[in-house]
Amino acid sequence: MPSYLHKLLRMRMEGRSHVSTTELAEYMGIEQIVVRKDIALTGISGRRRIGYEVNELITYIKEYLGWNGRITATLLGAGALGSAILGYDEFQVYGLYIESAFDNDPEKIGRVIRGREIYNIATIGQRLSYSPPDIAIICVPTAQAQEVADQVVAAGIKYIWNFSNITLKVPNGVIVQREVIAGGLATLTVKMKNDKAGIYQKIE
Question: What range does the domain containing 118 cover?
Fold first, then answer.
């Protein structure tokens, strides 16, 4: 869905009013039937030989993904990865706004990185408990991740996007999405190895 949305937003900027499943399938490199099934999940109906109205399809996809409102977030760990995430401007296109950032490095605390002042991670409870954001984005080293997760849960945050290389233990009712960056690299390198060996194997 995010890939469809990216294409549709570009089309809207180009002044396009309608899109067909054929065009989306070619862009994604997948079968038209897959595109039709995906789009059907949003509840929108297309018109034969005309396709889908671009603005309407954007709205339906955003509603399906829960991106039609403002999603607030805080970021924990303003190192290389965390700073890159802070600088990713397209999050706002999807309704995600990182409103605060924390770190425990004295050299970072008090600095402004990518437009956000970096606060002391020890003050999470003090700063966030009165009005917790929707999501906590955890980018701290593995050794600190569980402690930081405990702190954000105590501050009332129920949804965690975890970039640390650890499976977090959280109470019932708290939802964690773990991102394993090495997973994408592993998929690519296996494809590369098989290609060099003359072996075709479709790996998603």
Answer: 71-182
Q: Within a domain: residue 144?
A: yes
Reported as a single tens digit per residue, the pLDDT across 13-63 is 999 999 999 999 999 999 999 999 999 999 998 888 788 999 999 999 999
Based on the number of CB atoms within 10 Å of its own CB, is 99 exposed (0-12), middle (13-18) or buried (19 or more)?
middle
Euclidean distance between CA atoms 160 and 73, whole angstroms: 9
**CA angle in degrees (0–180, nearest 5) for 96-72-135:** 95
Instruction: Inform me whether the pLDDT recorded for 128 exceeds 70.
Output: yes
Dihedral class, residue 149 (left if φ above 0, else alpha if ψ from -120 to 50, else beta): alpha
One domain for residues 136 and 45: no
**Of 85, 90, 164, residue with least CA distance to 100:** 85
What would the pLDDT profile of 152-199 be if each residue is shown by its tens digit? 999 999 999 999 989 999 999 999 999 988 888 898 899 899 889 887
Q: φ and ψ at 35, to 5 degrees?
A: -60, -45
d(C-alpha 66, C-alpha 162), whole Å:
19
